[in-house]
Amino acid sequence: MSRSDPGFVHFPTTGKLPSGASGFRDVRCRKPEVNWYEPSVSLFKCGSTVSRTGAAFGAMNGLRLGLKETQNMAWSKPRNVQILNMVTRQGALWANTLGSLALLYSAFGVIIEKTRGAEDDLNTVAAGTMTGMLYKCTGGLRGAARGGLAGLTLTSLYALYNNWEHMKGSVLQQSL
């Protein structure tokens, strides 16, 4: 990989360098290959799609809030700046939130899979429940219970959707 390659990024190093070493190190960040059957492989890779989705959702939410808060103002530079500030703040907030949730969910999924030695929908539901509980645990026992219920509901719906064709085929076979 050469310096003209688009994947070539320089970050200055800190601390004392060995003699003859340059003050920069090469960091190559490529889009990861998705491996759905081994979540531990893609746990800390570069290019998180979830964070980008959160940023897009947050930007749209910021635009909505910015337009709502500035509806009494005339179209001018201050209004545009205020709307852009709201878009930026909300985009970063949602990207950070969804990125954190994705990291927690992935970590719990890997831990549960390695502990149980099986990869099935029970891992998905348990990881979602534990993620919701941990994310909302600052709200006390009631907040953790609500977060766990939200995680349980979302991941159960995902597992149901993911296995819908398999379940529909099983019901048809049993009725014959």
UniProtKB/TrEMBL annotation:
Subcellular localization: Membrane
Transmembrane residue ranges: none
Molecular function per GO: protein transmembrane transporter activity
Record's bilayer topology term: Multi-pass membrane protein
Primary location class: membrane
Cellular component, GO annotation: TIM23 mitochondrial import inner membrane translocase complex
Keywords on record: Membrane, Transmembrane, Transmembrane helix
GO process annotations (BP): protein import into mitochondrial matrix
Name listed for the protein in its UniProt record: Mitochondrial import inner membrane translocase subunit TIM23
Cytoplasm among keywords: no
InterPro entries per the UniProt record, alphabetical: Tim23-like
Keyword check for Cytoplasm: no
Protein origin, superkingdom: Eukaryota
